[in-house]
Amino acid sequence: MQTRNAAIADLNGKIAQAIEGGDFELAQSLKNQIDALSNSQQMDMLRLQSLSNKRNEAFDVMTSFIKKMQDSDHPSSATCVNLHFLSAPLWSMKGHEV
Known about the structure:
Layout: H1 2-20, H2 24-71, H3 77-87
């Protein structure tokens, strides 16, 4: 991202030089390059936002699940087994001595 910002700043400097020199075709070409870099940067930001949203959603789902587990008076037997398995030391499980 910083590299892209530096490239855009560099291109802006070159555009100013091209305009001063009267090379408007070069200036337009440089503007097109800046547009392409900006579009790429926007797409990266959208991807980052999407990943952040997915991470937040996963935390919300997990928090909701944990809350439901804590609020439940009688969790299902499968849940009890899974919780027991997760909390039991490896050496205490039958047939799975370490």
